[in-house]
Amino acid sequence: MSEPVTAGPAGWINLPDVSEKLGVSISKVHQMIREGALLAVRRDGIRLVPAELVANDTVLKHLPGVLNLLHDAGYNDEEALKWLYEPDEALGGNAAIGLGGQQAREVKRRAQAVGF
Questions:
Q1: Which conformational region is residue 57 in: left (phi greater than 0), alpha (psi within -120 to 50 degrees), or beta?
Q2: Distance CA 43, CA 33 (A)
Q3: pLDDT for 4-29, tens place per residue?
Q4: Which residues form the DNA-binding protein Rv2175c wHTH domain (predicted)?
């Protein structure tokens, strides 16, 4: 029997690079994280953002709303990360991928259901 594939981002971006990619100050990036508009987790003591969440030089449109729903349901950032990257072929691979495409509405619906 094969082991389940561990879900996770395809790549990571450190906060200074996120700042440069989005064209905002590093303090603005920290503010976005504090306000739940962007997800960052610590890896080896460094705060990193999943690369897919800052596609095309912007934060995915529906990410702040989904993060808000998950945080309201009691998820911390690590748990939200796990939820976003849990394998789900119906969403194109996982919820993070679904947020960037035609499945965004379904991702939001599922995030709402987590709280109930």
A1: left
A2: 16
A3: 444 689 899 999 999 999 999 999 99
A4: 12-53
Report how far residue 11's alpha carbon sits from residue 48's, in angstroms, rounded to the nearest whole number: 10
Q: Widest CA span of the chain, in angstroms?
A: 48
Report how far apart the first and last C-alpha atoms of the chain are (Å, whole number). Answer: 34
Distance CA 29, CA 15 (A): 7
| CA dist., res. 85 & res. 87, Å (int) | 6
What is the pTM assigned to this prediction? Answer: 0.86
Q: Which residue type is seen at 22? A: L
- Gap between the Cα atoms of 42 and 98, Å rounded: 24
Query: Could you report the per-residue pLDDT of 80-89, keeping only the tens digit for each?
Result: 999 999 999 8
